[in-house]
Amino acid sequence: xxxxxxxxxxxxxxxxxxxxxxxxxxxxxxxxxxxxxxxxxxxxxxxxxxxxxxxxxxxxxxxxxxxxxxxxxxxxxxxxxxxxxxxxxxxxxxxxxxxxxxxxxxxxxxxxxxxxxxxxxxxxxxxxxxxxxxxxxxxxxxxxxxxxxxxxxxxxxxxxxxxxxxxxxxxxxxxxxxxxxxxxxxxxxxxxxxxxxxxxxxxxxxxxxxxxxxxxxxxxxxxxxxxxxxxxxxxxxxxxxxxxxxxxxxxxxxxxxxxxxxxxxxxxxxxxxxxxxxxxxxxxxxxxxxxxxxxxxxxxxxxxxxxxxxxxxxxxxxxxxxxxxxxxxxxxxxxxxxxxxxxxxxxxxxxxxxxxxxxxxxxxxxxxxxxxxxxxxxxxxxxxxxxxxxxxxxxxxxxxxxxxxxxxx
Amino acid sequence: xxxxxxxxxxxxxxxxxxxxxxxxxxxxxxxxxxxxxxxxxxxxxxxxxxxxxxxxxxxxxxxxxxxxxxxxxxxxxxxxxxxxxxxxxxxxxxxxxxxxxxxxxxxxxxxxxxxxxxxxxxxxxxxxxxxxxxxxxxxxxxxxxxxxxxxxxxxxxxxxxxxxxxxxxxxxxxxxxxxxx
Amino acid sequence: xxxxxxxxxxxxxxxxxxxxxxxxxxxxxxxxxxxxxxxxxxxxxxxxxxxxxxxxxxxxxxxxxxxxxxxxxxxxxxxxxxxxxxxxxxxxxxxxxxxxxxxxxxxxxxxxxxxxxxxxxxxxxxxxxxxxxxxxxxxxxxxxxxxxxxxxxxxxxxxxxxxxxxxxxxxxxxxxxxxxxxxxxxxxxxxxxxxxxxxxxxxxxxxxxxxxxxxxxxxxxxxxxxxxxxxxxxxxxxxxxxxxxxxxxxxxxxxxxx
Lengths: 409, 181, 258
Known about the structure:
The complex is a heterotrimer.
Chain A: E1 23-27, E2 39-45, E3 48-55, H1 63-67, H2 72-79, H3 87-102, H4 108-137, H5 140-161, H6 183-206, H7 210-216, H8 224-229, H9 235-238, H10 246-249, H11 270-296, H12 314-319, H13 321-332, E4 340-348, E5 351-359, E6 367-371, H14 373-384, H15 390-400, H16 404-408
Chain B: H1 21-31, E1 35-36, H2 42-51, E2 73-77, H3 82-94, E3 100-104, H4 106-110, E4 131-133, H5 140-156
Parallel strand pairs in B: 1-2, 2-3, 3-4
Chain C: E1 28-29, H1 34-42, E2 47-53, E3 56-61, H2 66-75, E4 81-90, H3 91-94, E5 96-105, E6 110-119, E7 124-125, H4 134-145, E8 149-150, H5 179-182, H6 184-189, H7 195-198
Parallel strand pairs in C: 3-6, 7-8
Antiparallel strand pairs in C: 1-2, 2-3, 4-5, 5-6
């Protein structure tokens, strides 16, 4: 039935019987364990990987180019699609970068809500990591259990902002909405649920599981020096024994007031990183529990007061002429931040998510660069995979926890 | 235990169900739609969620397959970039007939919010699409509804695939309609 | 007369700018922090300008000194991680690129941005021997801006396909792509001869194709699904996006949803 055109099947990807007895295989871009659209060209000698070449760009959508053609507020929903497993962390990183550029700070209640959403997103992302990593390694039941809890977290997100995946729940200068009634009560019961399930389901199923340990222990070993040199951040860096968490070292939002620990593992392998993710979820629920009483002590203001950049609250727009005029200018033309450049790093669930913004005083950013943690973790694959067996390739891709929305942008 | 008694004398001998071949074939086809795990971007996460605990796709006879040779439906979940387009078409060509395509999410339908140099502006430029599913990202319920609509469509079709009209690939030039499938 | 569009920067411009609007600047502070002062001293001769902008030290250097400066920063000042490196296009204004390296010191929790101006069509030295993260980052710079990097182990396009034309993040490159980009997938999959059949990309989401009876219900003048309407007389007027005359009488309500 097929019209003969350029699509007639061809096998240029496979090279059999080369002179040096190595075989080149193509992994992806459509592969169920490739976490998206990763294409790996692997050179194998028997079962062992001799050379690995990650080919990325299959999800390149030109997000950085879009930022140069959109006003600052217009661009915010696009950041959802970077790391689409934890959207709010991207919204927040972008909003924080713009806020630093403008020199404004969100009011206290907005900060409580933002921190709660960030930690909730961390739990969502880590649950997703456990689910997919276990599925890739072969433990299907963990996938089903972890998605069950993840759905409860999604319900909470949906209660707050109406969306399951692409939240846009953080705006430049604050948050758009107050928490709905009873949300904090649901959050508290969700924390209990996660803590219970962590101990009784995931860790019971995985931590001492013989197969799980055999598949993960001493697989994907990264030394601390390598991790730093290759630009690893987040759990990849902490899994190599380097205690570096931006929440602690360069605190933003309310993290300086909160009490939490930074788990570090010096095992340097996939198993250590898995344990670290589990511990980080516990710390996140600990933070969430501390945030619940903090909410009641705050004033109801949600957006920062900066009439030059941020629209006034709705009541003021409806009643006061000047606020309406400001709002009109901000919506039709967009805010004009001062001239300058800013780089702000935040600790997203995957690692250091930073936004570099170069502003020339126009309503459009002159240049926006998104420093995505997964991009550098993908780069590490070309070193990490060499010398491992083909069966461990999927484990190593799983442990890097890469998301292609932010690798390719 | 339930007891069934068939009175062979009154039903003229044997229990018989009458149907047409079309209906029988379509009954089989529509109730065991195996999609290809073709997650491209954000929608892939919702596609996974619809296969996981709460939404449970398996109850509809939908089991995700990783190989295009075993799949009936291609759910194009997410943004198709120009670099990837060649592979999408190659995967479609590898699927065996009968095959259907669901384009999931605005990015796959029209390019969506990514009106840029790197995004294919609608997958129907390269693959004939049966169901367009709006939303960014569509909820798992929406995907299940789309699959039910596809089942409905299959039941209406002829079992002989040659008789069915497929979506043309032509978009702009109305007069020239060449089938590219 | 055709509207003048500047060719050297085709990105979106602001619709309205007040003539008397003075653009403020983010304040640049003097380097007073103890650690940053020691960094500037260690680099004594190579730094052209140094200041602190939003909590981070910014060092301006000459483009040929980049390897030397980063080496000193890594080995003497403890900046062991290169978080990010990229470029900014200033070709329209100064015929230069601005390159920056964002470095991180983990023990002191400090960040430094090293900035240099690189003339058009000249190359930069790779810092890959110092920071392995530069491997991908420099390939991205090469892909997106076309800046050549000397001594890079594998300088090749990374995000765009190998046979792509143009460097997408240049200011001369339009957001929606050029001629080559708009036909890329058709050329690659079907071949150039299929361009006529498939037609150009539809970048306008509100566009209606009158003759397409499969995708568009012709409101008020419904015909059968997939009917060939190209030869019939057109009694409906469509504007570019809207139906103009709507015949309510001859419209029919479907009993069942299709």
